[in-house]
Task: inverse folding
C-alpha cells in the first residue's frame, strides 16, 4: 500500500530517505530551504519549515521524518533546532515523527552505550541534544529517535561526516588520513542507508517502540583499521598511518573556529572507545564494511566525472 511521508531536510540523511521511500513506491513531500531537481513521486516545498507547516495539514501524512540540521555549534542548534522541532511536534499531533539522533546527549556513557541508558550530557552540544530528547518525550505525540554512531555513506557530506573529511577524502587524494584522540580505539560506525532503513521501520511500528532506539551498526573498528580498509577498497596505496591531530592544535584553532571549538569539547568521545549496541532494531540487516566503503568510493568517483 502506498504511504505518504513528510521529510523535513534534504541533507545526507534526507536524500537517502527520499531515495529509499520512492523506490518502494511511497509518496514523499520534502521541505527544504533551497530548490531541488524534480523527482518522480516527490513534491518539493521550498522554504523554512516554520513558514511551511502552517500551510500543510498533518492528516495527509502517514509519518514524518525530521532530518533538519544546523551549523555545528551549540548556539545554532539551540536557536534553530529547538523552536522548529517544538513547532513540528505540535503540528504533527498523533502522526508519528522519527528523528535521526547522535550519541551526544549521553556524554561519556556513549563509550559503551545500550538502549535505555540514562541521558547525561557532558558538553554544550550534548546539552542541546538532551533538551531536544526531553521535548520529544514531553510532546504527547508518538516520537522515535533513532540513535546512530559516526556516519559513513554515499550521501555523506564532508561537513557532516567526520570520517569522510578526515579519512576518505584525503586517501582519495593520495594524502595521509587524519584522526582524533585514540586512533586505535574501537568505534561503532553507522552506514547511512542502514540508518534510513531503521528509521523507515521505526515509523511503521512507532507505537510499539520506546522513544529512543539504536540504529543498526557495523562492527566497531579503529580509525587506523578504517583508513586501511578504505585504501584497500579504493585501490589506493596502503596508508603509512593515521596522523593524530593534537588536542592542543584543536583548542588553539577553536579560538577562531566554532567547529573546532565544539570538536574539542567532544574530545571525550575520541579519547576512548565508542561502541553503540543495537537493541530493538537488532534484527534489521547491516551492510558489510567493504560493501559500504565501496559504495562511498563509487559515489565519489561518479561525482568527479
Result:
Amino acid at each position: 500500500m502506498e504511504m505518504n511521508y513528510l521529510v523535513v531536510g534534504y541533507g545526507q540523511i534526507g536524500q537517502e530517505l527520499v531515495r529509499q521511500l520512492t523506490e518502494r513506491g511511497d509518496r514523499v513531500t520534502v521541505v527544504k530551504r533551497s530548490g531541488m531537481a524534480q523527482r518522480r513521486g516527490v513534491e518539493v516545498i521550498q522554504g523554512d519549515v516554520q513558514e511551511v507547516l502552517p500551510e500543510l495539514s498533518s492528516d495527509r501524512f502517514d509519518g514524518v521524518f525530521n532530518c533538519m540540521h544546523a551549523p555545528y555549534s551549540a548556539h545554532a542548534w539551540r536557536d534553530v533546532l529547538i523552536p522548529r522541532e517544538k513547532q513540528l511536534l505540535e503540528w504533527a499531533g498523533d502522526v508519528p515523527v522519527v528523528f535521526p539522533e547522535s550519541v551526544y546527549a549521553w556524554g561519556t556513557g556513549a563509550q559503551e552505550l545500550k538502549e535505555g541508558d540514562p541521558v547525561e550530557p557532558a558538553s554544550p552540544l550534548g546539552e542541546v541534544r538532551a533538551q531536544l530528547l526531553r521535548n520529544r518525550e514531553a510532546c504527547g505525540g508518538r516520537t522515535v529517535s533513532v540513535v546512530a554512531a559516526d556516519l559513513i555513506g554515499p550521501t555523506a557530506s564532508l561537513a557532516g561526516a567526520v570520517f569522510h573529511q578526515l579519512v576518505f577524502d584525503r586517501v582519495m587524494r593520495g594524502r595521509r588520513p587524519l584522526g582524533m584522540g585514540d586512533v586505535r580505539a574501537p568505534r561503532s560506525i553507522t552506514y547511512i542507508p542502514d540508518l534510513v532503513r531503521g528509521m523507515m521501520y521505526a515509523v511503521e511500528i512507532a507505537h510499539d517502540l520506546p522513544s529512543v532506539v539504536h540504529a543498526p551498526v557495523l562492527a566497531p573498528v579503529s580509525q587506523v583499521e578504517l583508513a586501511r580498509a578504505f585504501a584497500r577498497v579504493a585501490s589506493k596505496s596502503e596508508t603509512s598511518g593515521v596522523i593524530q591531530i593534537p588536542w592542543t592544535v584543536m583548542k588553539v584553532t577553536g579560538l577562531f573556529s566554532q567547529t573546532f571549538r565544539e570538536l574539542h569539547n567532544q574530545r571525550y568521545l575520541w579519547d576512548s572507545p565508542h561502541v553503540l549496541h543495537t537493541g530493538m532494531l537488532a534484527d534489521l540487516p547491516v551492510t558489510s564494511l567493504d560493501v559500504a566503503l565501496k559504495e562511498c568510493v563509487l559515489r565519489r568517483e561518479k561525482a568527479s566525472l
